[in-house]
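Notes from hallway chat w/ T.B., transcribed later so I don't forget. T.B. wanted the structure written out for a chain they're using in a teaching module, and asked if we could keep both sequence and structure tokens in one place. Agreed to drop them here.
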Amino acid sequence: MIKKEKFVFLAHCLLNQLTRAERSFTPSATPGILTLLKDFPVFVYQLPCPEYLFLGEREKRTQDVWEKIPGFRDFLSSLASEVERRVKELIKDKEIIFIGIARSPCCSAGKVYRGEKLVEGKGLWVLELGKRFNFSIIDFDFKDVDGSLEKIRSFLGKG
């Protein structure tokens, strides 16, 4: 059985942490993800950060707040269409994996903050891209860099 090539959508802030809300910075995250990815035969595409492109430097916001910002959902749709146009030929016959950000209102794989509560749900950017692409997703947790890297290593090593 021939293994399918892997194409990784990478959340923007994993390589450029200056785009994180309130300029949060985790020193070991970017070198860790770069070191990990070099060990796998994958194609990597750094996704744009919709939050940063829409508002620039900003404070942290919950998903319900982002949903209420006028024009943001339309912006996400337009941005996702642009990503689709750019990668359409690159992704042919490849398994797509999205490395998202734990608890992010836009890039989370499974839990987001709505108000004060952490609830089940995907990020808004993940949902919008999911309308255009079929992908597996795994979260990177800036609060647990080593654990995240190990989960991603295991995930990329499958199949």
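Follow-up for T.B.: The chain has a mean pLDDT of 95. Might be a good example for the class.
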